[in-house]
Structures are given as structure tokens and as C-alpha cells.
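Human: If only I could read C-alpha cells as easily as an amino acid sequence. Underneath my words sits a plain record pairing an amino acid chain with its C-alpha cells. Take your time, and here it is.
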Amino acid sequence: MGRPRKFEADTAVDRAMNVFWRHGYAATTPQALLDELGIGKGSFYNTFDSKHGLFTLALERYKDSRLAFLAETFEPEGPLRDRILAALRELTGLGTHNQGCLMVNSTAELGPSDEALSAIAESLFAGIENTFRDAIERGRRDGEFAATDDAEAGASSLLATLVGTSILLKMGTDPARADRAIRDAVHSL
């Protein structure tokens, strides 16, 4: 019989997510993860199989948290423009950590070579775009946005703004510049 686990796997995934977010996949060594999580090598590999296994779990956790945030943000009735603006700021980390979006950063780093990442990223980006499209359509019905606005095109533009702004923030651009890009994209709706 093996020794009982002395750490909480869910907490470890959350902490690992932040390590990958700060440093990227390639620069995050297994030892850095062990140090951050405060666990031994055996516990790490028995629980997560590999660095990539933990990375995949962290990306899934990130995706689920971002989609839950969006659902909560857009559930109530009422004006949507300010909520879209707030959602873009939150998703890029503007004003809080200015590290960009973990999924955008990871996709930019690893590209299509990582199939697990690509699948998780596509799911998140489709969920974001669908949420923005639904919000724009709702805003059109409520008269907040012009009835002639193409909700699909608007949602695609907002997703592109999110991706671009995330990269700018990760590069260390002036947060005021990034905020201006976000405000301009939302204002164009």
C-alpha cells in the first residue's frame, strides 16, 4: 500500500497554472514546479505523469475558469458595453497582472505542435467568441448596439483584440496603450 498523498492535487494545479503563466512552458522546469508545489518527485509523477500532463490540467482549469467568469459576467440583464470592456480587461489581465492571457501566451509559445494545447485553446477561444456574439446580439435586441451590426464579425474582432492585447501586455507594453486598444474595439460595436 502506497503512502497517502500529502498535498491537494487541485491546489497544485492552480499553483502550477500560475507558474506556467509567469514563465511559459519551456522555461518552467520540473524542479521549479516541485519547488513551487512543495512536493517530491515521486508524488509529482504519480499524480501528474509529466510536466506536460500538469500543463494540460492547468490549461483545462484556466479554460474552465475563464468560461465560468464570462457566463457570470453576461448572465444578468442590463447594459452590455461596460461588461464587454470589463471582460476584455479581465481576460488580458490588464490592470491586475499585465501578463496577458495564459492560453494566448501558451499558443504563441508552442503553436500547433502541441495538439492538447491546440484543442483546449480552440475550445476556449470558441467559447469566448460565442459569448461575445451572444452579448452583441442581445445588445442589438435591446437597442444598445446598432441593429445593422454583424454580431459574428463583432465577436471575431473582440477575440482578435483580446489575442493582440494579451501579446502586447506579455511583451511589457504600456498598459494605457493596451487599454486604449480595448476601449476602441468595444466602442466600435
Notes: The chain has a mean pLDDT of 92. Residues 132 and 181 are 17 Å apart (CA to CA).
